[in-house]
Design brief:
alpha/beta, Rossmann fold, 16 helices
């Protein structure tokens, strides 16, 4: 106990010492991320692209006490893929890949989860299970009996919870670095350490000052995207960025991106502490309670797991171990695809790989099922 107490004192001392240094470094790094005039033009084009997609494909539905926003590409004859985005982004995460997926035979329906994007929600006392309930309510409203359920990061976690609650509504799963592994196990076996705690704090404090236009408010998140995926900005990425800002009551524009928002996840020290589960908000608590090996115990649908590896093709420790255990548990259903030299935001960095793998999954599913079209006629026509 005394040793643990000394460790706690040392940890707090290091945080107190390092925080000013890392904050200064982050500000310098943000300055280094400044966008060129050409990139600002791309952001402007992305803003217009975002507005065009909303006009053609944006939809709203009243379900479970909220007005859920979603984007619907394709026709009711396509095989439905219901996609859930990562934490702090939006349905426009699929802007770059949706057209090709529709051409391949999908109907792509991407949702803004409650309190993200345009799915406004004042009550933040919700869990992954609440989001899964929203998806099944959306499916019911669109007359969709079964769908491929997928998502990135947070969206993968929601997809796993959805399969656990509604397996009879699932044709297949796409888990893009989320849902396929237990965060609780990662914390216990491969703890993130001081560096990740500090980085999460810094991410939560990145510039979010109100701006006089949507374009100006897009810049901070554009800087993050540019740095994190190490890829040139394009119109589709800029469209996603445009979707993450909103106009406030004063007529100013501000970023909705709050990667380290304690209202959802709890304080970073608590969220990253395996012993602090009960003190977290429902959202953070439900993430920690996802165990894929339990939820997939009766898996009977084709499942694509995308495992990005930042360090070349080097395995990712405990997360790779968990993926391999799942594959061993259900070798006939699970396919793991490794994306080398790719950070967490896999299909942002590798859209063509993602399209390829989603098409292969669709072929597997079609070989197993005769899929009737949905009853809905509200889909946008074409991509």
């Amino acid at each position: 106990m005394a040793r643990m107490a000394r460790y706690g004192v040392i940890k707090l001392s290091l945080i107190s010492f390092l925080m000013p240094i890392l904050t200064w470094y982050a500000k310098r790094k943000i300055k280094a991320w400044e966008l060129s005039s050409e990139e600002m033009k791309i952001l402007e084009q992305g803003e217009n692209h975002y507005l065009g997609i909303e006009a053609r494909h944006g939809r709203f539905v009243e379900i479970n006490g909220i007005r859920l926003h979603y984007i619907d590409w394709g026709t009711p004859n396509g095989v439905p893929l219901i996609w859930t985005h990562g934490h702090s982004t939006s349905a426009h995460e699929m802007d770059e890949v949706a057209t090709k997926l529709v051409e391949a035979g999908y109907r792509v329906i991407a949702i803004d989860v409650r309190s993200h994007g345009q799915s406004h929600c004042d009550d933040l006392n919700f869990s992954m299970q609440h989001i899964a309930d929203d998806i099944v309510a959306l499916m019911d409203s669109l007359g969709i009996e079964k769908a491929i359920i997928g998502g990135l990061s947070l969206g993968g976690q929601v997809s796993m919870v959805f399969y656990d609650q509604y397996p009879q509504r699932v044709l297949g799963l796409i888990l893009a670095d989320g849902g396929n592994m237990s965060f609780q196990e990662c914390l216990e076996v491969d703890p993130p350490g001081i560096r990740n705690v500090l980085i999460q704090k810094l991410l939560g404090k990145l510039p979010a000052s109100p701006a006089t236009s949507r374009l100006q408010a897009m810049v901070p998140f554009a800087q993050i995207i540019k740095s994190s995926i190490q890829r040139e900005l394009n119109v589709e990425l800029a469209s996603l960025i445009a979707s993450t800002v909103k106009e406030n009551k004063e007529g100013m524009w501000e970023s909705c991106v709050r990667m380290g928002d304690t209202r959802y996840l709890g304080e970073p020290e608590q969220f990253n502490d395996p012993a602090c589960l009960a003190r977290l908000p429902l959202y953070g608590r439900s993430i920690r309670l996802i165990f894929a090996e339990i939820s997939m115990r009766n898996l009977d649908v084709p499942t694509l797991i995308i495992e990005p590896r930042a360090d070349g093709d080097k395995p990712r420790g405990n997360s790779t171990d968990q993926n391999n255990r799942l594959k061993a548990q259900h070798p006939e259903f699970i396919k793991i695809v490794v994306y080398p030299d790719t950070h967490h935001l896999a299909h942002y960095k590798r859209p063509q790989w993602f399209i390829r793998d989603a098409m292969l999954l669709l072929e597997r599913i079609k070989s197993l099922h005769e899929i009737p079209p949905s009853e809905s006629t509200s889909s946008g026509q074409g991509a």
